[in-house]
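User: I'm putting together a teaching handout on how sequence relates to shape, and I'd like one worked example. Could you take Holliday junction branch migration complex subunit RuvA from Shuttleworthella satelles DSM 14600, show the sequence you're using, and then write out its predicted structure as tokens right after it?

Assistant: Happy to. First the sequence, then the structure tokens directly below it.
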Amino acid sequence: MFSYIQGRVEEINPEGIVLDHDGIGYEIGLPQSSLSQIRRQMQLRVYTYLQVRDDGFSLFGFLKREDLDLFKLLIGVGGIGPKGALSILGVLSVDQLRFAIAAGDDKTIAQAPGIGKKTAQRVILDLRDKIDFTQTLEAQLDSKASDRSSDDIRGEAILALNALGYSSAEALQAIRDLDISSMSVEDLIRAGLKELALR
């Protein structure tokens, strides 16, 4: 119903904000990570999701559209409602959550308050095939690469590990913390294979 609402932040509370738009105050639930970036009286655009239930309506909001898109995927997972999805997005960024799903890392997802190990595993199973990991892979490479040549080396190593039968998530997890400042692609592939053998 609402794609986004733009207005002035009138109130901030532990659950979210009241956003004034043309004299109407919209009560919007936000993830904790977003609340820390907001100040009273600031102008804000919030991408929204309207939940309709028998006992009333609830608005949930996000500062980025990609957060809203991931929220919609999360509430499609059995056992996760809007508050559970907000809890997950309150402790993990979009890229961190995508990477955790790609890597099958239920411990990271279960860090969210109210999310147990079984629910975290369900998130991984349900969303692994619904998420585009290309953006996450690029973001992880960018954050670890100090320059373009490092990016190229990591990319080539991941492609080589893919050819050996490992997924991009497994390959990235194996090489992401390695210091590649003095490594060739071949060195990185060998080091990645060692890491994978230890798992």
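A couple of points you could highlight for students: The chain has three domains: 4-62, 65-127, 134-198. The CA atoms of residues 98 and 131 lie 7 Å apart.
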